Amino acid sequence: MVNALTGLLAGICVLVPTLSAAVALTVPLWWWALPPHIVLTPAFFQVRDWPTALLTPVAAVPHLAVLVCLAPPAALLHARVRVRRLTAGGRARLAHRLAEVTTSRAEALEAHAAELRRIERALHDSTQNRLVAVRLHLGILERLMDSDPVKARELIGVTQSAAEEALAELRNVVRSIYPPVLADRGLAGAVSALALRCPLPCELEVGTLTRAPAAVEVAAYHVVAEALTNAVKHSGASGIRVGVRTEGQTLYVTVTDDGQGGVDETRGSGLAGIRGRVAAFDGTTEVSSPPGGPTTIRVELPCAC
């Protein structure tokens, strides 16, 4: 509507002086063929005889001057109005998208920082303590080696157990960063392993899966792991269903339990961690948990390389 109205006004500004100039220039060619009762007034005088008709083309000069002065501004005004209207929606979408990217970037940085804090806590609270114990046992062994060999041999077994536990803790930390099962068996095999280890009966539905970037598969793996852990601990469910599939350039993950429902996201960090991890990849997380259940977590992860 805006384009039509401004185009009409611009067209009038161009068409009127153009027609006036054309009439003034051609009057000598056809004025004599008009009926006597029709009198032309192409300028500020009436055409009634040949001398007046021959002077009429001079009147085209001001019309052409008006045309030269009005046509470019009218066309420019029309173009600016069209550009403004045609790009208004695009600019709004661009601004909205920029806000989304800024938010996802902040959430990605927060998720990265949270992951670093988790790894630091795991190393500090478990592995480091076990390594300190190994060091203490070795110091005691050094003093007991000559004075009490029997007790020293007993302590060797304790030290060896502490070292094995520290090694196991390190392996768990490494697996939490990038589970080796993902590299060996892909996302389908990794999710199957999670379902087999789940204490509750877990039904797995794996649709068509294409290999996604490693970071996306790690995110999907941790989403399933965290959702299963939450369901086992808090839902009171008797069964869980997990679905994983790829459609186009999007990876879909769905975890549903038949528990009591009524999930309150403000009372724990599990769902917040899932949302932060998914948002870091510009994905979406939907949680449906009416009182009485079931609880469904749907995640969409863009997986285009």
Outline the structure in words.
α6 links the parallel β1 and β2. This protein has 3 domains: 99 residues; 76 residues; 121 residues, Histidine kinase-like ATPase, C-terminal domain (Heat Shock Protein 90, 2-Layer Sandwich). Strands 1-2-3-5-4 form a 5-stranded mixed β-sheet, with helices on one face. It is built from 7 helices and 5 strands. α6 packs antiparallel against α7. It is of the alpha+beta class and 305 residues long. The longest helix is centred in the middle third of the chain and has 88 residues. It is rod-shaped.
Could you name the CATH topology of the largest domain?
Heat Shock Protein 90
CATH architecture of the largest domain: 2-Layer Sandwich
Q: Fraction of residues in helices?
A: 55-70%
Structural class: alpha+beta
**Largest beta-sheet characterization:** 5 strands, mixed
> Could you spell the SSE succession in H and E letters?
HHHHHEHEEHEE
Oligomerization category of the chains in this entry: single chain
Number of strands: 5
CATH-wise, what's the superfamily of the largest domain?
A: Histidine kinase-like ATPase, C-terminal domain
Q: What value does the Rg take, in angstroms?
A: 40 Å
| Distance N to C terminus | 42 Å
Count of individual helical segments: 7
Please state the overall shape, judged from the principal axes of the Cα atoms.
Answer: rod-shaped
Low-pLDDT parts are none
Kindly report the spatial arrangement of strands forming the biggest sheet.
1-2-3-5-4
CATH class of the largest domain: Alpha Beta
Task: Indicate the proportion of strand residues.
Answer: 5-15%
On the 0-100 scale, what is the average pLDDT? 81
Count of individual domains: 3
